[in-house]
Specification:
Length: 91
């Protein structure tokens, strides 16, 4: 399966978003929030979902038709991998 340029950009954004959440967790910014409300990987998932909604509304396309489901899963998996690499839990 070949990904389009938009889907590849979404996958890269998933990795960047996972790295940013990992850096925030490493600095201690998510200590209280992640312990009581959200685990860090859920923040990556919410960020990807909100990004897809905002971009699809900005381009006047229906949310859900903008990115393929395989690309969504790959973006989430790469985001979680980047998150745990930055946090040091995947070494």
């Amino acid at each position: 399966m070949r990904f389009s340029v938009t889907e590849l950009a979404f996958i890269v954004w998933g990795s960047v978003l996972g790295g940013l959440v990992g850096l925030a967790g490493q600095q201690g910014l998510l200590a209280g929030v992640s312990a009581t409300f959200f685990p860090p990987f859920l923040l990556v998932l919410l960020g990807l979902g909100l990004t897809e909604i905002v971009v699809s509304l900005a381009t006047a396309r229906a949310p859900g038709t903008f990115i393929n489901m395989t690309a969504r899963l790959f973006a989430f998996a790469s985001g979680v991998a980047a998150l745990y690499l930055v946090l040091g839990r995947l070494s």
